[in-house]
Amino acid sequence: MRSLRLGNDGGVSSRWCVPEGAVATETRGGRKPWEVDDGLWERIEPLLPVIERRFRYPGRRRLDDRRALCGILFVLYTGIPWRYLPQELGFGSGMTCWRRLREWNEAGVWQRLHEMLRAELRAAGILDLSRASAARAVCGR
Q1: pTM of the entire structure?
Q2: How far apart are CA 99 and CA 105, in angstroms?
């Protein structure tokens, strides 16, 4: 894996690391693997917790959830450390994305998304778990 180059000022240069030999191929829709298309976003957005801003002392505006999700997917796809998420991509800081991942995990977003997608696949007749065995998953056979 290539490492990030730090500039003289301690900032990360625009070259971010990707696994050796890996190329960020575009999907059929012309998107990178970490970019969330509208169809998937329409499924995910209702599952996300709504965080209200305080009226008094509202602080900095919260990063858009879709951008945070793209940042999370970018880090997971490339394997870079959270702290090296390039600001130039517009996904916020790595710490922001990490915190959002933690919040969504604690809120059960990923479990609900998994269940929803599994139900959709079953309804479409694409997923058939009738031959799956729980013993194999538990015992590793």
Answers
A1: 0.68
A2: 10
Please tell me the distance from the alpha carbon of residue 113 to that of residue 45, in angstroms, as a whole number: 10
- Tens digit of each residue's pLDDT (9 = 90 or more) over 49-86: 988 877 777 778 889 999 999 999 999 999 999 999 99
- d(CA 62, CA 58) in angstroms, rounded, equals 10
Q: Is 10:43 a contact under the CB 8 Å cutoff?
A: no
Six-digit token string for 29: 């829709």
Read off the tokens for 118.
């599994």
Residue 97 class from Cβ within 10 Å (0-12 exposed, 13-18 middle, 19+ buried)? buried
3-state DSSP assignment of residue 6 = strand
Cβ-contact 5, 11 below 8 angstroms: no
